[in-house]
Amino acid sequence: MKRWFALALLGLLVAPTISTSSAANDVHAFVRGSWKQLRETHAGQPLVVHFWGVTCGPCRTEMPEWGHFLQQHPNLPLVTVDADLVPNDEAAVKSMLAKSGLGSAENWMFDDDFVERLRFEIDPHWQGDIPRTLLITRSGVTTTIDGVADFAKIASWWNDQAAAGR
User: Fold this and answer.
1) Order of strands across the sheet with 132-136?
2) Environment class of residue 101 by beta-carbon count within 10 Å: exposed (0-12), middle (13-18) or buried (19+)?
3) Which of 4, 76, 100, 156 is most open to solvent, judged by the fewest CB atoms within 10 Å of its CB?
4) Tally of domains within the chain
5) Containing H/E element for 41?
6) What is the pLDDT at residue 36?
7) What is the per-residue pLDDT for 140?
C-alpha cells in the first residue's frame, strides 16, 4: 500500500502540467489571482492583454496578425490569454501560438473549470466574448477593444505610450 501511494505521489509530481516558468513557448496557468499577479508584474508600464481561444473562429484568423504586429513592434509588452469557454489542450494552444509567431510572447491559458470566476476577476462586466483586447496605460487606464483588434488603433496607442515614456 505504501509503495502504491509513493508511486501515485511520484506520478503526480512528474505529470505534465501547464508550465509556470518564463521561458519562451511556455504557457502559464491562469488561475485565481493570476490577473492580480499580471497587473502587479507590469505595474507602471503600458501593457496589451489579448484574450483569445482555440475554438474561436475570429481568433484563429486574427492570431497570425498579432504575430506579425509583434514582429513590427518587438518592444510591445504583449500578454495573450487563452480564455476559451471550453477547456483546451495545452498542446493545441502552444501549436496555435507557434504557428501565429507568438511563442515568445507572455502566454497564459485559463486553468480553472469555473471560468466565470476568472473573467469576473478581470472585469465583472465581461461575459466571456472573445477576441478581446485590453490596452492598459502606465497609470492603469484601460481601453477595451471587443472583437477583432484594430491594429492601426493599437499601433497609435503604443506609439503614444512609447513617446510618453521617453
Assistant:
1) 27-30, 106-110, 78-82, 47-52, 132-136, 142-146
2) middle
3) 4
4) 1
5) helix 34-41
6) 97
7) 94
Q: Residue 155 belongs to a domain with what CATH number?
A: 3.40.30.10
Q: Return the pLDDT at 21.
A: 36
In a domain? residue 4: no
Q: Flag whether 61 is in a domain.
A: yes
- Residue 33 CB burial class (10 angstroms; 0-12, 13-18, ≥19): exposed
Residue 6 within any structural domain of the chain: no
Residue 10 forms part of a structural domain: no
Domain that holds residue 128: 19-164
| Distance from C-alpha of 28 to C-alpha of 111, rounded to nearest angstrom | 9
Which segments of the chain have a pLDDT < 50?
Answer: 1, 3-22
- Taking only the tens place, the pLDDT of each residue in 129-157 is 999 999 999 999 999 999 999 999 999 99
| Buried-exposed string 52-63: b where 16+ CB fall within 10 A, e elsewhere | bbbebeebbebb
Task: Express as a percent the part of the chain with pLDDT over 70.
Answer: 84
Using CA atoms, how far apart are residues 18 and 89, in angstroms rounded to an integer? 10
